[in-house]
User: Fold this.
Amino acid sequence: MSGHRKWSDLRDRMMERPGAAEAVERAQAGLEEELRLYELRHAEALSQVEVAGRLEITQSAVSKLEHAEDVRVSTLRDYLEALGARLELVAVFEDEGRRVPVHLGKEPAA
Assistant:
């Protein structure tokens, strides 16, 4: 494996640079902003009725989904697709600083 370096070694070297830790914290803060489902829908200028039509469910079902504390991944995927988005799942290994895309199901990711 000549020419290859471990990610952890590269990360450690980068973090030794002056100001690197602060820059990483600022970048992470910007990426960690979360939006609620209804905020995403509002950002796309869609009503609950419009989303319900796209999902072929009732407006009240959309309201329940937007306020639910626990949602199935498949339901979330369908909701986001109705908004024109795609759901991506990522496993984050904090101790290693590693992010791995996760694919659900038996078929390989496209």
Notes: Residues 94 and 100 are 11 Å apart (CA to CA). Residues 20-31 form the longest helix (12 residues). The two ends are 28 Å apart (CA to CA).
